[in-house]
């Protein structure tokens, strides 16, 4: 049987509960959006294979629970990540302030040199924005 992919990347979504991590993942893998918030319990993952210049790249994205009570479990997944998305909600100043905490967890638990991307989610809710565009663009990582 032909190999289904050439390279595999393990990516991780982290951020406060309710910022929209699961929704980002569903949009990316299935192009779906669910308006309800069903909190992730522990961790979950989805995969998608994309073609990059003829190379089959399998992306395995781990979706973690933002709730404090699952953090002992979720931190165990940082170790194997090659890339980490740190997600906040532009309508929640609090979720943005917590990015510093999430970033320090990455420094502590993820491999050195892991790639980090900051995502300001819920961009469609601009009228409720609490985090300015420039604020979001300011470097929050070392
Ligand atoms: N308006 C708007 N709502 C969104 C967006 N993304 C997610 N939501 C809503 O925000 C709520 C939380 O989304 P989830 O994806 O479940 O949040 P989560 O970060 O995975 O939460 P936990 O699993 O508890 O960590 C849901 O009601 C979503 O419908 C977005 O881009 N725009």
TrEMBL record:
Which reaction equation describes what this protein catalyses?
Answer: GTP + H2O = GDP + phosphate + H(+)
- Supply one GO CC term from the record: plasma membrane
Indicate where this protein resides in the cell. Cell membrane
Q: One Pfam family for this entry, by name? A: Ras
The UniProt function text for this chain reads: The small GTPases Rab are key regulators of intracellular membrane trafficking, from the formation of transport vesicles to their fusion with membranes. Rabs cycle between an inactive GDP-bound form and an active GTP-bound form that is able to recruit to membranes different sets of downstream effectors directly responsible for vesicle formation, movement, tethering and fusion. RAB15 may act in concert with RAB3A in regulating aspects of synaptic vesicle membrane flow within the nerve terminal.
Q: Subunit info?
A: The GTP bound form of RAB15 interacts with REP15. Interacts (GTP-bound form) with MICAL1, MICAL3, MICALCL, EHBP1 and EHBP1L1.
What is the protein name stated in its UniProt record? Ras-related protein Rab-15
Q: Which organism is it from?
A: Leptobrachium leishanense
Upper lineage: Eukaryota, Metazoa, Chordata, Craniata, Vertebrata
